[in-house]
Amino acid sequence: MLDKIKKAQKNVAIVSSKKTDVLKKNCRQLKIDHFIDVFIGSDLVQLHKPAPEGLHVALKLMNNDDLAKVIYIGDATVDIMMGTSAGVKTCAVLWGAHSEEELMSSDPTYIASDVHTLDNILGLTH
């Protein structure tokens, strides 16, 4: 999926509760670091999730001020809350930290139960 996103010339940022160096190390170990344009760890912000600061920093570093084109994807309610408070669309994925019921309570714009659905939401399926 990350390869499809990059081929579609879309930017990718990760905003994490982990420190930036740990986040980058994890992405290197997963061999996905080259797909990521911006890494924002908890050490780069004053206010952590669900505050929107991390997402605002990421968007600024990507020179993206068109919030209508942004979708923040997350597996936890704090992710969805952060995206909503930053003024962007959100997509809750069901293969992570929180249950569907918990994620639905945070009112995501979209919900993806599988990668195919996420592909469709991101407009990567032809």
From TrEMBL:
Gene Ontology MF terms: phosphoglycolate phosphatase activity
InterPro entries registered for this protein in UniProt: HAD-like_hydrolase_sf, HAD-like_sf, HAD-SF_hydro_IA, HAD_2, HAD_sf
GO BP terms: DNA repair
Pfam families attached to this UniProt entry: HAD_2
GO cellular component term, pick one: cytosol
Transmembrane segment boundaries: none
Protein name: HAD family hydrolase
Organism: Chryseobacterium phosphatilyticum
